[in-house]
Amino acid sequence: MSPTGIAIAVCALAGLAGQAQAERIKNPVAEFSGIDKITGRIISFDVYMDETVQFGALQVTPRVCYSSPETEEPKTDAFVEVDEITLDRQIQRIFSGWMFAESPGLNAVEHAVYDVWLKACKQESDVPPPETN
């Protein structure tokens, strides 16, 4: 086979491999867990995309939350922004990046008092959705 033929075959196989993977599912809700290191309490909480929920002195805002279809290997990730409200009531961004549910220690937010990590991405929640104007 000529070098051009090999290149065409490789491109065709790469195209097929890309088609074999299912589309990631975009979810409207991210489920987080957080620990208050002082009390030892672990709390799970749901947050809708682009909404902010306060956990202790932290404000958690997911921007996008993806999961893989049930037929694929589990992969769940979310792009999250976390701000801290300081004692003098200033807001500081302490985290902006991807969190991975399958590897919670990889990009969890580790704060002096609070830790937060992604548990799951969901299509619905018991928490009522935010009001839209």
How would you sum up the global shape?
globular
Distance between the termini: 62 Å
How many H/I helices? 1
Unreliable stretches: 7-19
For the secondary structure, the number of strands is 9
Briefly note the structural class of the backbone: mainly beta
The helix/strand order is HEEEEEEEEE
> Hey, roughly how much beta strand do the residues contain?
over 45%
Radius of gyration based on Cα positions? 20 Å
Write down the overall mean pLDDT. Answer: 85
Helical content band: 10-25%
Largest sheet: 5 strands, antiparallel
Q: Key features?
A:
single chain; 133 residues; four-stranded antiparallel sheet; 1 helix
Topology:
Layout: H1 3-20, E1 25-26, E2 29-36, E3 41-48, E4 53-55, E5 58-67, E6 76-85, E7 91-100, E8 109-110, E9 114-122
Antiparallel strand pairs: 1-5, 2-3, 2-9, 4-5, 5-6, 6-7, 8-9
